[in-house]
Design brief:
about 40% helix; binds NADP nicotinamide-adenine-dinucleotide phosphate; Rossmann fold; alpha/beta; 7-stranded parallel beta sheet; 8 helices
């Protein structure tokens, strides 16, 4: 049942029948919810993450056609292995969801560790660009010919300064700008969009709400934090033909928080 209490649709949409997708960072959290949504609507999905065991457990929730390849999102060899598997097993690619993202440090920019900064930018920004370049360059995937599309996972912290999360915010601001620039450069064949969530209840964001969820949720006009499914719904919309006239957009998913003066 959707979170607004309305009944689930009687005939769930099958918007991705015959479509193939890659979702990076998808053994849990937002990536897994996205992969499950795309698969439930008919897509064949390949998921990635670094650790094999949780990735295998996630794969088991996706149905018989799905694939999983373990590796680091910022590793070119891993990207090549994933795309070779997609070509071999699926025969082409229609949807790339750049979801893998990291935030290993917390603290002010004044004393930010520059090696950590490089790693964050490497995974969150250059990883997003590199996956996009790789699917375009891999001729066997026919991404351009199939009028594929890319959905990047940004963050509201890329729009509004979140003290302590500065490096992460810088990386997500770059993801938003990559999205807008690529959307112009790759049109008309390829659409490129992004989502920018506020706090979504995953392991990644645990430190931001665990033990005080009601207090944090009170600042959200819609009265609750995000669920991975909230993001999956938006990603599925952007990846689907329902959004065929939408490109270069960064869709804020925040339960109304920014308009209420939240963040920053
Ligand atoms: N949760 C939030 O509040 C929130 C808000 C805004 C944006 N986001 C963004 O949403 C995305 C997903 O976050 P999440 O909250 O779903 O996190 P999560 O629950 O911690 O899941 C992260 C997933 O990515 C994988 N992963 C992490 N680093 C990776 C890497 N270098 N290469 C490949 N896979 C990697 C993890 O598996 P392994 O550990 O096995 O690799 C896991 O499957 C991120 O881009 C994050 O910035 C999250």
């Amino acid at each position: 049942m959707p979170h607004d209490g309305t009944p689930a649709p009687q005939h769930p949409a099958r918007r991705f029948l015959g479509r193939n997708a890659v979702v990076t960072g998808a053994s849990r959290g937002i990536g897994l919810a996205v992969a499950q949504r795309l698969a439930s609507e008919g897509a064949r999905v390949l998921i990635t993450a670094r650790k094999q065991e949780p990735l295998d457990a996630a794969l088991a929730t996706l149905g018989g056609d799905a694939l999983a390849v373990a590796g680091h999102a910022d590793d070119p060899d891993h990207r090549a292995e994933v795309l070779a598997a997609v070509e071999h097993h699926f025969g082409g690619l229609d949807i790339l969801v750049n979801n893998a993202g990291i935030n290993p440090v917390y603290g002010p920019l004044e004393t930010a560790d520059l090696d950590a900064a490089r790693k964050i930018l490497e995974v969150n920004v250059l990883g997003t660009l590199a996956w996009t370049q790789a699917v375009l360059a891999h001729s066997g995937l026919q991404f351009r010919e199939r009028r594929g599309n890319v959905v990047n996972v940004g963050s509201v912290s890329g729009d509004v300064p979140a003290p302590g999360l500065g490096l992460y915010g810088v990386s997500k601001a770059a993801v938003a700008h990559l999205t807008r620039t690529l959307s112009v450069e790759l049109a008309p064949d390829i659409r490129v969009n992004a989502v920018a969530p506020a706090v979504v209840k995953t392991r990644f964001a645990g430190a931001l709400y665990e033990g005080r969820e009601a207090e944090v949720a009170a600042s959200y006009p819609l009265g609750r934090l995000g669920e991975p499914d909230d993001v999956a719904s938006a990603v599925a919309y952007l990846a689907s033909a329902d959004a065929s006239w939408v490109t270069g957009q960064v869709l804020t998913l925040d339960g109304g928080l920014r308009n209420a003066g939240g963040l920053g």
